[in-house]
Amino acid sequence: AYAPKVEMRHGHGHFVDAGDGIRKDVLICGGTGCTSSNSMAVKDALLTELKTAGIADEIKVVTTGCFGLCALGPIMIVYPEGTFYSKVKPEDMPEIVKEQLVGGRPVRHLLYHETVKGDDILALDQTPFYAKQKRVALRNCGVIDPECIKEYIAVDGYQALAKVLTAMTPADVIKTVLDSGLRGRGGAGFPTGRKWMFAEAQPAGKKYVVCNADEGDPGAFMDRSVLEGDPHAVLEAMAIAGYAIGADEGYIYVRAEYPIAVHRLQVAIKQAEEEGLLGENIFGTGFNFKITLRLGAGAFVCGEETALLTSIEGHRGEPRPRPPFPAVKGLFGKPTIINNVETLANICQIILNGAEWFASMGTEKSKGTKVFALGGKITNTGLVEIPMGTTLREVVEEIGGGVPNGKKFKAAQTGGPSGGCIPASLI
Fold first, then answer.
1. In angstroms, rounded to a whole number, what is the distance separating the alpha carbons of residues 117 and 106?
2. 113 or 8, greater pLDDT
3. Which residues are CB-neighbours of 118 under 8 A, at least 6 positions away?
4. Does residue 8 register a pLDDT over 90?
5. Mean pLDDT on 277-302
6. Which of 122-126, 228-232, 318-322 reaches the highest mean pLDDT?
7. Where residue 9 falls among pLDDT bands split at 50, 70, 90?
8. What is the pLDDT of residue 188?
9. Residues 6+ apart with CB under 8 A from 401
10. 295 phi/psi in degrees, rounded to 5
11. Is the distance from CB of 265 to CB of 272 less than 8 angstroms?
12. What is the model's pLDDT at position 411?
């Protein structure tokens, strides 16, 4: 198994190098939402203030992916205390450095208000927004630096790939995914293991794995947030899928409108290749797998899987008649499996924790969790991940904080304004 000598300090944000002298970690959201509200200016101001205070060598500042509470960005968390600052500004940094990073006293008026209860400061999982969530696909978003492979490895990254290559057959992998009950998170809900089984059953030869990251629904940013916060999880899952069906090549088709996600995928692919986790003879097992990025030009129709394949091939993105389905005749006419980002983000945890663990969440027919982007007239706009079977009322009134200004709830649109869908178990 792949067992590098790295571990997480405080369980968040920074891998341990012996004797590095770091006493606190400051995590700043670098997702699109917080970046657009100036979080990188906050980071720059913090770094400047740390130098001024003479403690730059004692504080590790980490840019992470999305924490979920986009309505409160820019967001900053200080560990080991776990203090959660919301709507921070560059001009707040002198006070935070002086009071907490030097003096050890949280700046209470800048904290997320739901964590402040009298004299106590609550942990995030005790707040209404986070209490009912269960993070699987989003487990590393807001936890690690997505541009540092060591931090991904420190939270068991690439252990699932090592496990399947050294201790499981392709049939074992497919059975595990089947038994987990994982269904496609792109909307159709087709059993993922069955799709892999169809492709594996095709005659040996050239096969492909494709990640559909062409998230086109207005207001949807689930896949974007996974790619921005945990890109290696998708790369690792694609390699596992390749092993399961007998493919040695994968493509990620991602929207060009997602520049942060594209950059972090490029960084992650390069790092994985340098570490021997993508490419030739992975873990010395003889298994080869490479991944190529393809940028979409903004055509909404390319979110449909056959149009996406046509676009990867260099043609106008137009849907193809089915059958034949991609698992039989897909990219360049070869057997191909296509999974969306969120689907793939569950794979490694299923391999490491087992099918029964994943199937223990959700409902009888819809296992696991689902990620949602909450938008519109709701108090807590942002990103949530909840077990299948959670009611719409819980999402809107408890996690989402209800309708602002005491107004009555009238209606909610689930899925996407352009025709997306969610499992009926969530209604």
1. 14
2. 113
3. none
4. no
5. 92
6. 228-232
7. low
8. 80
9. 128, 129, 378, 379, 380
10. -95, 130
11. no
12. 85
HEC string of the chain equals: CCCCCCCECCCCCCECCCCCCCCEEEEEECCHHHHHCCHHHHHHHHHHHHHHHCCCCCEEEEEECCCCCHHHCCEEEEECCCEEEECCCHHHHHHHHHHHHHCCCCCHHHECHHHEECCEECCHHHCHHHHCCCCCCCCCCCCCCCCCHHHHHHCCCCHHHHHHHHHCCHHHHHHHHHHHCCECCCCCCCEHHHHHHHHHCCCCCCCEEEEEECCCCCCCCHHHHHHHHCHHHHHHHHHHHHHHHCCCEEEEEEECCCHHHHHHHHHHHHHHHHCCCCEEEECCCCEEEEEEEEEECCCHHHHCHHHHHHHHCCCCCCCCCCCCCCCCCCHHHCCEEEEEHHHHHHHHHHHHHCHHHHHCCECCCCECEEEEEECCCCCCCEEEEEECCCCHHHHHHHHCCCCHHHCCCCCCCCCCCCCCCCCHHHC
Cα separation values, 95 from 50, 98, 109, Å: 11, 5, 11
Beta-strand pair 369-374/249-255? unpaired
Rounded-to-10 torsion of CA 324, 326, 329, 333: 130
The pTM of this model reads 0.92
| 171: CB partners within 8 A, 6+ apart | 200
> Quick check: 59 and 52 in contact, CB under 8 A?
no
Tokens for 39, please give them. 């979080």
In single-letter form, the type of residue at position 119 comes to D
96 Cβ neighbours under 8 A, 6+ residues apart: 46, 76, 78, 85, 88, 107, 110
Instruction: For helices 259-274 and 231-245, give the axis angle rounded to 10 degrees.
Output: 60
How far is it, in rounded angstroms, from Cα 121 to Cα 384? 22
- CA–CA gap between residue 2 and residue 5 (Å, rounded): 10
Q: Is pLDDT of 425 > 90?
A: no
Compute the distance between CA of residue 395 and CA of residue 123 in angstroms, rounded to an integer. Answer: 20
Rounded to the nearest 10 degrees, how much is the dihedral formed by the CA atoms of 230, 215, 334, 251?
-40
Residues 116-144, mean pLDDT to the nearest whole number: 91
